[in-house]
């Protein structure tokens, strides 16, 4: 009897509570429906809002795009440029010269391992090809796959006439290679006294330091290149400071 009376008394209160909960749930449900419609409109844009189709890519545009992509990975070479590098690598100098003059190969072409025609030609003492590459805008600052600039490669290989040609063309005489050596350091370490003479005549600083803070005399002494040491001392290398930097 007590339970029946309690339910009778509580009945109106329970009904009021249920009505209140229903009112609170209605806006949430409506909001969810509105949100669903908004998301649906984003997921399925109308045809009018769709982006227009891109125009077909022109061959010139494609080549520029590929070259741009190549700057972040292995370079994309034209057939003529690849032929130029292949000729320079295999010593077919006449063919390389012909590719430059007749087929307009790119003087700054570079392959995936960093090879470029100017450094290859300078190392081999191919002055005619070097001169043609310079005339066509070859970058004298670019390093080859061995870490040498064109001047450094020529100096290391003892190519006196090529060193003179490059020096007269205005290349940076104190350019460091990847090993931190200038052309004078490289010539001194290998004992190419004729190349040392050319560089000094071109006004390269005899006390120029490499990345290890050594002069050419330091390097020549370390390599036991007595003739190179004698020439450098005669040219005014500072014996007092040698080995103390």
- Main sheet makeup: none
Q: How many separate helices?
A: 12
Number of strands: 0
Query: What is the helix content?
Result: 55-70%
Mean pLDDT: 81
- Write the CATH fold name of the domain at 74-145: Serine Threonine Protein Phosphatase 5, Tetratricopeptide repeat
Low-confidence stretches: 27-32, 38-52, 65-71
Which range does the strand content fall in?
under 5%
Distance from N terminus to C terminus (CA atoms, Å) equals: 110 Å
Radius of gyration: 38 Å
CATH domain class of the domain at 74-145: Mainly Alpha
Which shape, going by the Cα principal axes? elongated
CATH architecture type of the domain at 74-145: Alpha Horseshoe
Helical/strand content category: mainly alpha
Question: Main attributes?
Answer:
single chain; 245 residues; mainly alpha; Serine Threonine Protein Phosphatase 5, Tetratricopeptide repeat; 58% helix; elongated
Task: Write a compact overview of the structure shown.
This protein has helices at 2-43, 59-70, 79-89, 93-103, 117-123, 127-135, 150-156, 160-168, 183-190, 193-201, 216-222, 226-234.
């Amino acid at each position: 009897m007590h339970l029946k009376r309690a339910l009778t008394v509580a009945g109106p209160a329970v009904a009021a509570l249920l009505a209140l909960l229903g009112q609170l749930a209605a806006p949430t449900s409506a909001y969810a429906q509105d949100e669903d419609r908004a998301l649906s409109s984003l997921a399925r844009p109308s045809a009018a809002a769709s982006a227009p189709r891109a125009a077909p890519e022109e061959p010139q545009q494609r080549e520029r795009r590929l070259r741009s992509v190549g700057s972040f990975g292995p370079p994309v070479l034209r057939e003529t440029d690849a032929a130029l590098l292949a000729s320079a690598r295999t010593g077919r100098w006449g063919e390389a010269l012909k590719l430059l003059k007749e087929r307009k190969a790119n003087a700054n072409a570079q392959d995936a391992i960093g090879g470029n025609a100017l450094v290859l030609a300078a190392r081999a003492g191919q002055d005619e090809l070097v001169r043609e590459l310079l005339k066509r805008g070859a970058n004298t600052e670019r390093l080859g796959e061995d870490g040498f600039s064109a001047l450094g490669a020529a100096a290391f290989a003892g190519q006196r006439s090529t060193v003179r040609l490059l020096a007269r063309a205005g290349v940076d005489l104190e350019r460091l290679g990847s090993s931190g050596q200038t052309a004078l350091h490289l010539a001194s370490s290998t004992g190419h006294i004729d190349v040392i003479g050319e560089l000094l005549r071109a006004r390269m600083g005899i006390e120029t330091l490499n990345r290890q803070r050594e002069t050419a005399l330091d390097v020549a002494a370390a390599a036991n290149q007595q003739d190179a040491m004698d020439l450098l001392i005669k040219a005014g290398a500072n014996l007092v400071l040698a080995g103390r930097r």
